[in-house]
Amino acid sequence: xxxxxxxxxxxxxxxCTRFGERWGDxxxxxxxxxxxxxxxxxxxxxxxxxxxxxxxxxxxxxxxKSAIGLSQCLKLPFLPVTRxxxxxxxxxxxxxxxxxxxxxxxxxxxVAVGVExxxxxxxxxLPDFGISLGTRNRLTFPNLTAPGAFAQLATRYAxxxxxxxxxxxxxxxxxxxxxxxxxxxxxxAHLRREVTIEAIMAAPTVAWPLxxxxxxxxxxxxxxxxxxxxxxxxxxxxxxxxxxxxxxAVTSGEELMATGWDGAHIETTSRAAxxxxxxxxxxxxxAELSLLNLHDCFSITELVTYEDLQISPRGGxxxxxxxxxxxxxxxxxxxxxxxxxxxxxPIGASGLRMIYEIYKQFQGxxxxxxxxxxxxxxxxxxxxxxxxxxxxxxxxxx
Amino acid sequence: MTGIVSFxxxxxxxxxxxxxxxxxxxxxxxxxxxxxxxxKAVANxxxxxxxxxxxxxxxxxACGSKGRIGALFAASTTFPYxxxxxxxxxxxxxxxxxxxxxxxxxxxxxxxxxxLLSALSCVTAGEVEQALVTASDCRLGKPGSGQxxxxxxxxxxxxxxxxxxxxxxxxxxxxxxxxxxxxxxxxRLFGRSWEERWIREEGYQPLLQGAIQGLLAxxxxxxxxxxxxxxxxxxxxxxxxxxxxLRLTPEQLVxxxxxxxxxxxxxxxxxxxxxxxxxxKPGDLILVAGYGSGAxxxxxxxxxxxxxxxxxxxxxxxxxxxVALVPYEKYLTFREILxxxxxxxxxxxxxxxLSALSRERRAVLGLVGxxxxxxxxxxxxxxxxxxxxxxxxxxxxxxYPFSSRTGTVFSYTGDMLAFSFDPPAAYGLVDMAGxxxxxxxxxxxxxxxxxxxxxxxxxxxxKYVDRERGLTGYFWKATxxxxx
Lengths: 398, 484
Known about the structure:
The complex is a heterodimer.
Chain A lengths: L9 E7 L10 H16 L8 E5 L12 H7 L6 E4 L5 H14 L5 E9 L17 H6 L5 H15 L4 H19 L13 H6 L2 E4 L1 E2 L8 E9 L1 H7 L4 E10 L3 H4 L9 H14 L4 H4 L2 E3 L5 H10 L8 H6 L16 H5 L3 H16 L14 E9 L2 E10 L1
Parallel strand pairs in A: 2-3, 2-4, 9-10
Antiparallel strand pairs in A: 1-7, 1-8, 4-7, 5-6, 8-11, 10-11
Chain B lengths: L2 E8 L3 E4 H8 L13 E4 L6 H12 L8 E7 L10 H8 L7 E5 L5 H14 L5 E8 L8 H5 L3 E8 L5 E10 L5 E2 L8 E2 L2 H24 L8 E5 L3 H10 L22 H12 L5 E7 L2 E9 L2 H4 L6 H6 L2 E2 L3 H7 L8 H5 L6 H6 L1 H4 L3 E5 L5 E2 L17 E5 L5 E9 L9 E8 L4 E5 L13 E12 L4 E10 L4
Parallel strand pairs in B: 2-14, 4-5, 4-6, 11-12
Antiparallel strand pairs in B: 1-7, 1-8, 2-3, 6-7, 8-13, 9-10, 12-13, 15-16, 15-17, 18-19, 18-21, 19-20, 21-22
Helix pairs in contact in B: 2-3, 6-7
């Protein structure tokens, strides 16, 4: 009987670049910057690192297809290196590869690297998904973008709970304002300016009903995690961070092709969260979790995720949001580092960037954003669209 | 007796006010003032001669089975493909049976009437039981030209057969000669014409009149026998002049639709015939004459079956279904006459895997999904494994056509980031009556009109145009079901 990977994997070193429009830096530059930070943080000899997983979403940019780009960049001595891609959940996929290798005993030290150099695409938002949806879908799917796909969550949420679009918009605005407030405190964040609810509500529409401030930053950046067994980790440092759960759920197609899904939640998140709580032994997430780092690609995504994670009741997220439940000084602070919204969203790096914040919070190194004695932290990384998604939920503790 | 079994019409919903054309371009060519009356139907940014033909044929086939159609004749002078049969594309969109003879024709506006003649001959000869005709056009006039005022976009369709005929075919008369009044070579967006007076006096009038009189002589009918006379001619004055010369009464002359639709080229004669059929009673003699590199005239007589014919929507509701296209520059943009800044999302078009398109043609062009024979769940596109989580049966699918079903809007957005010639790009999920959920663009509507739960119908549209590789991609879109 499988027992999961709870307490079988520890993070012993992490690095994360400043996210943003890094016009002067290449994907290689970003990888090296995060990698050197992680090595210094772990304080171990590089020769102990045995296997690498690389996450990038768009292979026509960054380091290209395959793992060769990473291996050549770091001049890795003919090691096992793998590139993974699972849309916006790619970063957590790299982490999962490395974590499973350690948990399986295949190696003592494994590395997860995530990078995305989005500002080399020439696009304001994410590049078109035209080719990446597969031959068959491309022939029929609307010419959809990420904001357009996620905007429908807001349309549905309003319809499902009988809310006026303005009511949903106001709750979404609070989500973004909170992240801007947190991001302003983070020197590595892409967007470091507080924004008022009024400014958010008045911003131009990107994909109705989502406005400019409902959408996350499109950034360059890289993040790296070095993983090992807890026993080895404690030999290296006193404060490693342990993986309590790591679950991933991918759509079966029923949200898109059957008619049972209500369109006002993310089914993969609900499924991955339920399994992660089971793996970590969390019985009451609202009472037990200390902090969240969610995939807030759009404010509405964060809103419904509160419900999918069983923290807010169904239909109850707007009330919790407006009550400040998820603010930095709230009951369960969310996006303490600014989230995708303000830290930015270099896709391949994002899942690892979320873990980076949890890791720093546990080690008491989150500076102005530091929480008091966090016990359990959750990261949530979502790829694809609400109607066809891949989701990972990871829980970390000490 | 061979004749017409059903008819159909389709006009794009958009109308361009000719005063708006004149307001924009009249400074350049003040003489077009005379033409600047009424409005013309113009294709939406996602419509072309193929999509118009499909919609007219859907109207035509709305009340009957299409299982007996053995031939398809598709006429247009503006088909998107010179090679890759447009008729085959239309047949796939209509999900006609693959045992089908099909043909594109063009060359002149009379391709519509000539195609109808071919269909009649084909059925009379016993080659096929039923033959379908589509005629559609989207011709462009240069900005500031008289043609810009005259040309309209539209389509008509006729189903020809031997049984259940609503109008019996009595005969035809054609005149063919090289009369180069309207000239357009392949690859050219715009045509060119010679002096109007010459066209009127040497072209329209003698050729149309010759065809009509020749037909009457051949069929031994007199002008007073005719209940309806449809004259498809771009010039309203010529129609009036012919009417006067032939002493036709206003009741006999069918509204030439020039003021409300414009001259729809190949489609026009058949559009007028569809209009006349809807207004006819059993026994009526209906003459239709079309012009282009000569003229064709055909004579039909309405049968008793017409009285009880359930009938398609036809021209009248198509005329009523209208919305103004403003401003004029939007029209220029839709037709790609005005090169707008497309942005990177509009510039880059992923290549189409033609082998995949061919393999998936019933799904992509015909919107045929599947229904699971184990649990009955309809789904799109066809799946190996049933998507119903309670079923999950493997390879238990039967074909399930979605195109004629209505649906309700499940979710929607208006996306300013996605490329569209008519931003915001509206799209979302649609739950179909009877089951199944489709991921679709919305068209012929504004974002403000869309509501969760509103009823929509499906329409065949252009999905993208790949200029670099010379390809047009088609799929189905949802459009609000408007009460006529």
